[in-house]
Amino acid sequence: MEIRRIDVYAVRYHHASGPFAMSGGRVSTEQDGTVVRLETDDGLVGWGEQCVISPSYAAGYAPTTRAVLGLLAPALLGADPRQTDVAYARLDEATKGYRYAKSALDRPAGTSWAVRPACPSPISSAGPTRRSSRSTRASASRRPKRCGSAA
Known about the structure:
Elements: E1 3-14, E2 20-21, E3 27-28, E4 30-40, E5 45-51, H1 62-76, H2 84-94, H3 99-114
Antiparallel strand pairs: 1-4, 2-3, 4-5
Helix pairs in contact: 1-2, 1-3
C-alpha cells in the first residue's frame, strides 16, 4: 500500500456560538483552516485537519500550514502509511519543525488504511511510534448555565 494522492483544501469556519473573545481584546468570529485528503493506491481515503483560532493565539496559521504542506505532501507520496517511522522521517527530512502542519497529515495517514479490520493502526493508537501532540479545545466566551464535575 502506498500514498498516491494528497489534496489540500482551504476552509473557513464560522463560530456557531458567536464571537470568541481572547485576551488582549482580540475577538475571533471565524477561523481559516486546512483540510487534507489522503488517498492510497488501493483507493482508501483518510481525512485530516489543522485549524488555529489566530496566529497571535497559538503556533500555526492556515496560509502557513498550506504552504508547508506544499513541501510535505510530495515527501509522503509513495510512502506506506503503515510504516509510521518512515513517514515521520520523510516529513522531518522535508522540513524541520512545523508540527502543526505535520499534524494535518498524521490522522489521515492512519485512517486511510486503518479501516481494514485486519490491520492494527499504530498511528491511531498510542503505540511506540506515535508522536505525542497536544490538542486544545476552545470554549465560547459566554458563561455556562451550569458547570459539571468529572466523575
